[in-house]
């Protein structure tokens, strides 16, 4: 019979058998899948696993701390955090085009991650150990979509770190390959992961970088982080987290409108709320949120976030609109 306890025990045995005495690396994104995969592998092989978290500076408020503190506390995993905020912001300077932003973020991410990987391989090499495995949070729907194949990931290291071979070949460890998303959440719960990680709604890899319409700057990111945190807080307080698929909060950085606040005229930016309901993100409908909740979010954002004087609601389904604005 299928129980999370059985799944966990079975996977732990399989991981131990696959990895043996070698070492493994796992990239953490802050998302559910990589967190649960890492927690499972940690349970199976302990200190033979090292996790890498690339902080690109595009995360929401508190999310990096969640990985650095709460996830580590819950699992005891060895974590290497790479602070790459400046690097990402420099690469994104002056860029407003959505596709170009995505490409830059993707490219920088791979470079930083590969560099961290190469450093770990080099460090382990000195200790005579073999880093042979890469852990990935591949789910069953991903396996089906890609035709079921897999095996090795051929990762090219473009950054030569002290005499390493150009190609580092890893075997993949994919302990979630037979699971659906809801099952992954149950396994995460069984492994004692924090609720905020296990129940986390989808969040795009390029992060807040694609939720700022216009150029991405530190100031704009900080502003959006505040607005987003308020929206999340109020949705949670209203008990609506399970009713919506996700709620992107978007800053229209290139738009200004006139407002009146306190002593007089303002000329600030609008924030867009994009709450959606969906089954699989392929199609979506805009969520009919209670007016009281929308009112609270609007009042708080315009009162508490400097330079924002308007909150608007996106009432477009997908299609024609995508969930994210970029
Ligand atoms: P769209 O905007 O295409 O989004 O309707 C569909 C779902 O995918 C998420 N999304 C991403 N997830 N990397 C990700 O891991 C990405 O680059 C990315 N772009 C969009 C989005 O949040 C929504 O859940």
From TrEMBL:
Catalytic reaction annotation: XMP + L-glutamine + ATP + H2O = GMP + L-glutamate + AMP + diphosphate + 2 H(+)
Recorded superkingdom: Bacteria
Domain GMPS ATP-PPase, first and last residues per copy: 2-200
EC class (word): ligase
Keyword rRNA-binding belongs to the record: no
An MF annotation (GO) of this entry: GMP synthase (glutamine-hydrolyzing) activity
Quaternary structure and interacting proteins, as annotated: Homodimer.
Protein name in the entry: GMP synthase [glutamine-hydrolyzing]
Originating organism: Streptomyces pulveraceus
Species classification: Bacteria, Bacillati, Actinomycetota, Actinomycetes, Kitasatosporales
Gene transcribed to yield this protein: guaA
Full-protein positions shown: 206 to 531 of 531
């Amino acid at each position: 019979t299928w129980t999370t306890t059985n799944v966990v025990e079975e996977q732990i045995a399989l991981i131990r058998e696959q990895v043996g005495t070698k070492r493994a690396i796992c990239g953490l994104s802050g998302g559910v899948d990589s967190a649960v995969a890492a927690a499972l592998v940690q349970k199976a092989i302990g200190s033979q696993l090292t996790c890498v978290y690339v902080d690109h500076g595009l995360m929401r408020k508190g999310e990096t701390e969640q990985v650095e503190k709460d996830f580590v506390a819950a699992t005891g995993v060895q974590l290497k955090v790479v602070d790459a905020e400046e690097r990402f912001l420099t690469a994104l300077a002056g860029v407003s085009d959505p596709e170009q932003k995505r490409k830059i973020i993707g490219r920088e991410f791979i470079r930083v991650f590969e560099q961290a990987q190469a450093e770990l391989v080099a460090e382990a090499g000195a200790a005579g150990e073999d880093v042979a495995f890469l852990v990935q949070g591949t789910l069953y729907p991903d396996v089906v979509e890609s035709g079921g194949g897999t095996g090795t990931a051929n990762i090219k290291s473009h950054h030569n770190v002290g005499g390493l071979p150009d190609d580092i070949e890893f075997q993949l460890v994919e302990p979630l390959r037979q699971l659906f998303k809801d099952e992954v959440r149950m396994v995460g719960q069984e492994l004692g992961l924090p609720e905020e990680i296990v129940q986390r709604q989808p969040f795009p890899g390029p992060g807040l970088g694609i939720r700022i319409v216009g150029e991405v700057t530190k100031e704009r990111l900080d502003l959006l982080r505040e607005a987003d945190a308020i929206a999340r807080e109020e949705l949670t307080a209203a008990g609506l987290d399970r009713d919506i698929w996700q709620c992107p909060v978007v800053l229209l950085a290139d738009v200004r409108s006139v407002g009146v606040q306190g002593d007089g005229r303002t000329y600030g930016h609008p924030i867009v709320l994009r709450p959606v309901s969906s089954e699989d993100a392929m199609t979506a409908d805009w969520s009919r949120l209670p007016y009281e909740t929308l009112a609270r979010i609007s009042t708080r954002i315009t009162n508490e976030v400097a330079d924002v004087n308007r909150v608007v609601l996106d009432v477009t389904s997908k299609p024609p609109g995508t969930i994210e604005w970029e």
